[in-house]
Specification:
Elements (H helix, E strand, L loop, with lengths): L3 E7 L3 H12 L5 E4 L23 H21 L10 E5 L2 H17 L4 E3 L1 H7 L16 E5 L7 H14 L3 E3 L4 E6 L5 E5 L4 E9 L5 H6 L8 E10 L3 H8 L7 E4 L4 E6 L2 E6 L25 H14 L8 E11 L6 E4 L6 E5 L4 H18 L20 H13 L23 H6 L2 E6 L2 E7 L18 H13 L2 E4 L4 E6 L3 H8 L11 E7 L5 E11 L2 E6 L4 H11 L7 E4 L4 E7 L3 H6 L16 E6 L2 E7 L8 E7 L3 H12 L5 E2 L2 H10 L34 H10 L3 E8 L11 E4 L5 E11 L4 E9 L8 E6 L2 E8 L9 H4 L1
Parallel strand pairs: 1-2, 1-9, 2-6, 3-11, 9-16, 19-29
Antiparallel strand pairs: 3-5, 4-5, 7-8, 8-9, 10-13, 10-14, 11-12, 12-13, 15-16, 17-18, 19-25, 20-23, 20-24, 21-22, 22-23, 25-28, 26-27, 27-28, 30-33, 30-35, 31-32, 31-34, 32-33, 34-35
Amino acid sequence: MKTHVRVLVIGGGAVGVSTLYHLTRKGWTDVALIERTELTAGSTWHAAGLLPLFNMSYTVGQLHKYSVDLYKRLPAETGQDVSFHVTGNLRLATCRERMDEYYKYCGTANTIGVPFEVITPQRVKELWPLLELGGNADTPAIVGALYHPDDGHIAPADLTMALRKGARGAGAEIYEHTEAVGIERTASGEWRVRTAKGSDIVTEHVVLATGNYARQTGRLLGLNVPAIPVEHQYIVYDESPELKAYRQRGGRELAVLRESDKSYYLREERMGWILGPYEKGAPARFADGVPEWFGRSLFPGDLDRLVPHVEAATRRVPALEHCGIKDIVNGPISYTPDGSPLIGPAWGVRNVWLNEGHSFGITAAGGAGWQLAEWIVEGEPGIDMLAVDPRRFGPYTSKRYVVKKNEETYRNVFIIHFPDEERPDARPAKTSPVYDKLSARGAVWGQRYGWERANWFAPPGVARRDEWSFRRTNYFEHVGNEARLMRERVGVIDLTPFTKHEVTGPGAESWLDRLVANKVPAKIGRMALSHALTPRGGIRSEFTITKIAEQHFYVVSAGAAERYDSDYLSKSLPADGSVALRNITNTRGCFVLAGPKSREVLAQLTDTPLDNSAFPWLTAQVIEAGLAVDVYALRVNFVGALGWELHFPIEYAHHLFDALFEAGAPHGVGMVGMRAMESLRLEKSYRMWGSDITPDYTPFEASLDRFVRLKKGPFIGHEALERQLTAGVPNRFVTLEVHEVTDADPLGNEPLFDKGGRMIGRATSGYYGHCLQKSLAIGYVHTEFVTPGTELSIEILGERKPATVLPESPYDPENLQLRT
Ligand SMILES: Cc1cc2nc3c(=O)[nH]c(=O)nc-3n(C[C@H](O)[C@H](O)[C@H](O)COP(=O)(O)OP(=O)(O)OC[C@H]3O[C@@H](n4cnc5c(N)ncnc54)[C@H](O)[C@@H]3O)c2cc1C
């Protein structure tokens, strides 16, 4: 056994072996994998082998697409068959909302190049003759379906063996019956992995790909990994006479069938069937780790949970009635609180990588290995991986939180994924101090990064709940009122969840300056919107950097980026101790006070002059506000109005809130929620980190040129930006007015087309601009389409709508209201 390697992968399921394989494809062959028992012994051996391309996430969709393409070419490359049955995949719809979901998905699929068809019930019957189209209360009529002709099912063990063969052929080593029992830092900064055999392997990088064991392997490094398995079962049926007869008549293998509205999948297996439901009440298991006795075992089948799905499937496919049950497979399937895997760097430790939390790990293995290998070798992934980055979760993922969320995610796999859906379990968890006050004002809550955030405020007499939809729905009018309040009078948004860091010390300015593309403010009271880039020039983070005092900067970024940014900043600190970094997210609250009357309201609370000359736009001062001291007042906001972000010591939250409302009462002050903020920021073409600005796009593509100072000296991404300028910027950011919208506004991830119908870009966000009374989208197009007035079209829920490129910031393009 080798004693030193460049990368050691721990865990020999499909995901770990794929990671090893892809490292060798990147040219890193001094790599090894250890497996505690035998390859595939975790969840991989008993997976049903389905490879659904369907996924609402832009990132995960790309990973799955890569996998399916890879699995098709693996047999020729490795000489190992993987039993890939390209049967196609059929997802039924029995209601309009389900069709809306499929159409929304089609937009994403188009932008990533996944082939699909939306088909009629008649075509469903042609493809799947053994199915009943339905039309009664028990078996609702099929109204349409989504068909993926390219996917199907595979033998997970064969897939793993093909990847193993490819990896070993290139020089990688695999050691079975070798359990990792300890991981320690060496004096040289490498990792020493101790094995149960008593031998050690020293390695530069460690990859954890341990499936159901993620909790305990994470603990070896002090990581609380938010991946806890849930029971998942499927039924294996005996031979089906009807299926046999159909195949003997020359029928082709039936597509994998999913009746989403009844939460099950069905596929052929040796002239019989495999039926797999996502049931209610499936329990999370092994929250404290997999016990020693479990090994390759399964749980006993739970028929009670299966029955409703078996009944529904039998009504849809009566052939099921005539075949006996051969087996019930009930195994642990790893889950995370949002159902997406954890692929990328671990937080707080260097050169430790996670490829964990896979609930569709056979489908994802190829793509997950591909991008993780890219990340390890190149220092960054090749595509935007924010949606699966392990650091999208924070320290709030307590065991009970993860258990509840994972059980909720599991039972909701097949529900309609409404874009405005907010799931109720494990809430409220993290709340701003004024949570109860906002509830009393009608807050309808959502959750992000564990925080409760008010999406909108139901006026007296209006029910405090969402009716989720892909279209305009019950809160549309109220969100519009909040947006108008902000534009016409004055509103307050509670943005306490913002991520906040304090950077101090003699090296603070020069360190920040090398980290971001903009010039770090040199004068006290100045602020700069700044972007930290990847070495390839993509936007990894967005920071508002304010100079509070000499050698003292206040750095604010997205609330959901707390661990992501904190980890990046702390890992980038210079070793000489010249910079101190403190995450002060939970010690300061933030209220946005904005609107034409905001100055008059704030003036009642402070003696600091607020007029334009004393307190201009894009400056900051440390003020007293009411009884509160040490309030960082930043004259900036995300809604495009006169106003201040007040970042105050958290203990003043109640006082400041009451004081603002008392002072604002004569001006009609009111609360404004996240959805109105979305409408307002789109009217100003403000890009949102995570959706509009991501590592996929450089600041030039995002048309953020004014925040890039190439001449200031080196910073991360500088060379890549220079190269892009020389080669030509391929895409540019645009704002679009979408015409002929009746009730479905763009929401992001819609494809954009030129007049000839050629896809030339994608929308990254969209919403109704309540004050402009226009349906708006923002996104990226090839550069020749950026001129204002250019006519394009956008596909929204399956319909092409005309759209016109607008000048940047359609509301108040001169920023007169901000400067007033
Ligand atoms: C009933 C069922 C059906 C499923 N059907 C599908 C499907 O149709 N399609 C699909 O895409 N997914 C399906 N899945 C999910 C799929 O099985 C998993 O997502 C996938 O197998 C995860 O692979 P993995 O490599 O991450 O984990 P695993 O296969 O669990 O591998 C992890 C490995 O790590 C090893 N290990 C753990 N700790 C250590 C250590 N300390 N040292 C060394 N080795 C260690 C384990 O022994 C194990 O072999 C199904 C799951 C279940 C339960």
